[in-house]
Specification:
The chain is of the alpha/beta class and 347 residues long. 33% of the residues lie in helices and 17% in strands. 46% of the residues are buried.
Length: 347
């Protein structure tokens, strides 16, 4: 490519692995990162010095103008992550995720950008996953009622007849149904980038990450993922606390696979939205037990607690990414958990 590839949020967990994969592939890389205190206490020591570094806020037009100048492609990883269940954070989520994306897109449009833009999206845009009722086929259950969750009834029933549902893999064509503030901002980012693609003709790819784990995950923040929370508990000699009954199904995908998906998408040959996932669903309790074995720690403790905004089952169909993007996850889950158990978490 003529010109550097800009990676927003390139100091973060996923963004830094994208930076490494691009540099290892011979690309010039420029990083824009604000080093949010909620995610970083200092500039991380794992940042590759081969990348050009700009410390700046994505909401700052001046910083963004410098970052996009001459950029041949953009991997947009910068975001405030987590559930966003505290409405005191709502303006921060919308500002960093949606306003920041709008400022980036405006700067790209002003420069006649015609390269590939890859957006870090998320499986949270789907809300609850895909379910089938024996009598009514594919249905969309509403958010689970607090009374049901308090009583330990964690599985969503058919919204028509109340029958038990069978969870299914979610394809990219499933409608958006965000269930928390973070999810709403990620879906809004997708819509903004789609509008940018229509207006400019740029190739835009939204990568809907499922549950990403691996080295450099943050610890001890409200925005850490469940794997990081369990890993922090084990490091403290405590049993991982598993909410609900542990039967929530997710797709755990290694961060190096996610970085590889970004490199493929930056080629710009297959615009659209894609699940980035292993294609093998596991329960949260399965993951906790695998991490406990790798760490040689205490067995997970199933608490029955629940969090507002959490969904029961979300796991992916990985076929579209394989067929159109050429991406299939290759990292072994058990080996990845052993690596993750030994890797230091980011302060």
């Amino acid at each position: 490519m003529k010109g550097p590839i800009l990676v927003t949020g390139g100091a973060g967990f996923i963004g830094s692995h994208v930076v490494d994969a691009l540099l290892d592939g011979g690309h010039d890389v420029r990083v824009l990162d604000v080093l949010l205190p909620a995610a970083h206490r200092e500039r991380p020591d794992y940042l590759d010095p081969r990348a050009e570094w700009i410390e700046g806020d994505l909401r700052d037009p001046g910083a963004v103008a410098r970052a996009v100048d001459g950029a041949a492609a953009v991997s947009h990883q910068a975001a405030m992550v987590g559930l966003g269940v505290d409405l005191g954070d709502i303006a921060d989520y919308v500002g960093h995720n949606d306003l920041g994306t709008a400022v980036l897109l405006r700067a790209l449009a002003a420069r006649g950008f015609a390269g590939a833009l890859v957006l870090a999206s998320s499986m949270v845009v789907y809300g609850e996953g895909r379910y089938a009722c024996p009598a009514h086929g594919i249905v969309r259950p509403p958010p689970r009622a607090a009374g049901d969750l308090d009583a330990g009834r964690f599985e969503p029933p058919c919204p028509i007849c109340g029958a038990p549902l069978e969870p299914r893999a979610v394809p990219e064509g499933s409608p958006g149904d965000p269930r928390n503030v973070y999810a709403a901002t990620k879906l809004a980012q997708e819509h903004l980038c789609a509008a940018f693609a229509r207006e400019t003709g740029a190739a835009v790819t939204a990568l809907r990450y499922h549950n990403v784990y691996g080295p450099r995950m943050p610890r001890d923040t409200p925005y850490a993922g469940v794997a990081s929370i369990f890993r922090s508990a084990l490091a403290a000699g405590e049993a991982p606390r598993v909410f609900e009954d542990g039967g929530q199904r997710r797709d755990f995908v290694h961060v190096r696979d996610v970085a590889r998906a970004n490199v493929l998408a930056l080629a710009g040959a297959a615009p659209g939205a894609y699940n980035v996932a292993s294609g093998t669903p596991r329960t949260v309790l399965d993951m906790a037990r695998a991490l406990t074995r790798a760490f040689d720690g205490p067995e997970p403790r199933v608490t029955g607690e629940w969090r507002a905004g959490d969904v029961r089952h979300v796991f992916a169909s990985a076929e579209a990414a394989a067929e159109r993007l050429g991406f299939r996850a290759s990292e072994d889950f058990d080996a990845g958990m052993r690596e993750f158990a030994a890797a230091p978490l980011r302060a």
